[in-house]
Structure formats: structure tokens, C-alpha cells
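As described in the Methods, two query proteins were run sequentially through the folding procedure within a single session, without resetting any intermediate state between them. The first query and its resulting C-alpha cells are shown here.
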Amino acid sequence: MLARAEVSGLTWTEAKAVGEDGWRVPTRPELETLVAHTCTQPAVNEEVFPGMDPEIAGYWTSTPDGSTRLWYINFADGSLRTYGGSLFRNAVRLVRSGK
């Protein structure tokens, strides 16, 4: 059995700053592809994406919902949610586009 990865909660401003060398925060449609509706706590295939921390189940997307809110996915149940403040902390799973 794989050990859980250490996951840190970041504000949206902090999350935007972590990508480098082509790595970035995924869009909402990209992150939604990871949701496995047949799985719960977390709603993701843990064999493919191991180590999700159940205490930090929210993951930021780079997609805004209007002008003041941002989308995130709660992988505890696979739900899509929005947040409009600056203090909320979620995790980030970075992606990189193919070359």
C-alpha cells in the first residue's frame, strides 16, 4: 500500500504561483476528468492517483466562475463548487501540456 502524499492547502493566489517549467493549475474540464463517480472518500481512482489526503479534498482549477469566483472540485464526493473569497485553502494537482 502506498503512503499518502503530504498535501498542503494553498490560497488561490498561492496556487497560481506554484507552477513552473510548463506545469500549471488545470482548467475545470481537465480536473473534472479525474473524478471517479464510482469511488468515494476520495472520488478518484486511487490506483492511478494515489496519496490524496482526505483532510484536504478540495482542489483548485484555473477556471473562473464569473468575475469574482473560482471553480474547485471536492474530491471527497466529486462535487464541483465555487468560491469567491481570498482565504480559503485548497490543494493543487498540477498538469503540463504535451509537446
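Immediately afterward, the second query was submitted; its sequence and C-alpha cells are:
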Amino acid sequence: MDDACLIFRTAWVYTLRTSAGSLRQSGFVNKVLDWARQQETLRVVSDQVANPTWARMLAEITAQVLARGKEYIHERVGLYHLAGGGFASRFEWARLILELDPNRHEQMVKELLPAPTSDFPTPARRPLFSALNCDKFAATFGLRLSAWEAALRMAMDVLK
């Protein structure tokens, strides 16, 4: 039995399109875009911070690692953080989503306001700071995901 495995821990994964090309209905990016088309004022949590991670980049970098082969992987077995470069609050992420929206003319939103997590009670308690340090992954594999802002720009270009 081969016990070689890699475990990649990630954060705030998003995507914009299904394999059939239609827009996904759930996920933070799509929710912000929907809200912006329905409301003049958006309140977004500003005290939760993590690494926005584009699913496409996560899949591509995982494929690059796997393509190196079984022996390569076996020598590097372990748990690694693998998430978008840098970190942001949900508020900062939402602000950039709105700026990069290729269909800004459809937005009704006039005001984006920061809000504390306590204003949005949920059954699940979320840590305020959950950004992942991906230095171990980068040092081991010589690869790193792009900065979250650059990845979001590329993802939003897909909508054009």
C-alpha cells in the first residue's frame, strides 16, 4: 500500500462559472455581484480576514505538483497551507469585486459600508483572523499562488 499523500489546507475558495459556463449562484463573489444589483447600500463584514483563493489557480497549482510524479510526492508527504497570496477582509474583497465587475453599469449600489461580524449572527462561530501562511508550501515546491488581487482580476476577466 502506498501511503504517500499531500494535504492542502486552503481558505475562502471561490469560482465564478460552472463547467457548462453558467454563473454559479452561491459563493461570496457571486453574492456580492448579486447584492450590488439589488441594493443601494451594502454592509459587509470588515473584521474577518483570510486568503481569497480562486479555485482555478488552486486546481492548476495542485496539478503542477501532482505532475511531478509519485516519487517526488512521496518525498514531500505532509500537510501544507495553499491559498491565495496575501490576505484581506471580506469588506476589502467586496470592494475590489465591485471595482472589477465588468458589468458595473448594472450595479445599483451607491455605498459599501464596513460592519462587524457581530452584526450578522450565524450558528457557526468564525475566527476573525484565519489567513494562512503558505511559506512552507512555497519552500517545498517552489510554487506560490498569485496575490489574491491579481487572481481576482483574472477571475473577473472570465466574466467579460
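The domain at 6-157 is CATH 3.40.50.720 (Rossmann fold). We note this only descriptively and draw no conclusion about the first query from it.
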